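Revision sheet: structure tokens.
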Amino acid sequence: MKIAFFDAKPYDRPAFDRYGRKYGAALKYLETRLTEDTADLAQGCDAVCVFVNDTVNAAVIDRLYRLGIKVLALRCAGFNNVDMKHAFGKIHVLRVPAYSPYAVAEHAMALLLTSVRRIHKAYNRTRDFNFSLSGLTGFDLHGKTVGVIGTGRIGRVFIDICLGFGMRVLAYDKFPSPNLDNGGTVRYVEPGELFSQSDIISLHCPLTNDTRHIIDESALEKCKRGVIILNTSRGALVDAEALLAGIKSRKVGAACLDVYEEESDLFFEDNSGHILEDDTLARLISMPNVIVTSHQAFLTEDALENIAETTMSNISGFFETNRCPNELCWRGGNAEDCRTGKCF
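Predicted:
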């Protein structure tokens, strides 16, 4: 079993090497991302393994299919970069539905605390032996209202963390989690109420046609003045131009972003020696009330271990039994949904 591993980074290799040996797989690590121009590098392999910024459109899928690739393994939960409808009947798509919800939820809270307590500014000052407190005044999270959009595994962990701080939670999800709404500290509400009542809004939902730009100009108009926006999910959940305008108008008090809608050519790479041509991202980074991290919320040793184990188990299990519980179908359901027809 030979696997072409696209967009490979040094932090990926230790765990994948271990589980590659365990499952008897030969891994062909490729630094380049998967695109129409690089798909041929998978020639001679049985499967390809990709990450969030690899391009798996119809042309790429057709090329992989002609190369005899049977399995596309996503080492992530999201699959918005894959043309699932086109993949159906050509190539099996497997994913890691959960690796460490704690990693992402904790990073979201770390960003929030850094922002509201001005920790990043204090750190930079004290490096220059500047110990003044002017401009570092923050506010308590206790008693504040946080709106959580998306109450899957990560969203529920983030809610638990917020409750530990004594916050009130307003939640929205197209498919509410049973028993989460307690009528008091956690309530499900419609988006309009969530926008208008929340001091902080945190996004933990997948990117779909329904959620694309869920934070846009219209949504921000409904928000409280000074609202804080957190996004550790998918970049295109937030209309970056609308967010920038909201920051400039003081409608948005702060933004904490681990993802960006046009990140694919920038994130995971060292661009420090180059001019940043993305004016919107450059302006966001220049804002004193914006924190941008480079899609690192998932990056813990625990998560990397879980990703490698599940990915290799998915691939090995599929080649052994021709089935995998973590297989996706063209409508985005799981393999069981495909077999029963629920996803069509």
